[in-house]
# Entry
Amino acid sequence: MNTTAYFDATAVDTPAGLTPTVTMDTISGIPSEGTGLIGAAFVPGSSIWNIDKATEAALGTPDATFVTTEFGYRSKTSDTSVAEFLA
# Structure
């Protein structure tokens, strides 16, 4: 695997051409807004166990909200670029 083929010394932090095309507005399948009940009603990988918090979520009055402004991508053994991953 030749990982140097994807390195551009002139754009150390951002692959050339990626910034203008990859934004939260152009990505589907990754929520950018929503409600969060982590720690209040459930633990990741388990089901909701607190009926009061489940009702709160169902009624749309959550105890927390989130807005995503960026996301993380990491690949251990793939040559797939971020742009290809999101396509």
Remarks:
- The mean pLDDT is 60.
- The two ends are 22 Å apart (CA to CA).
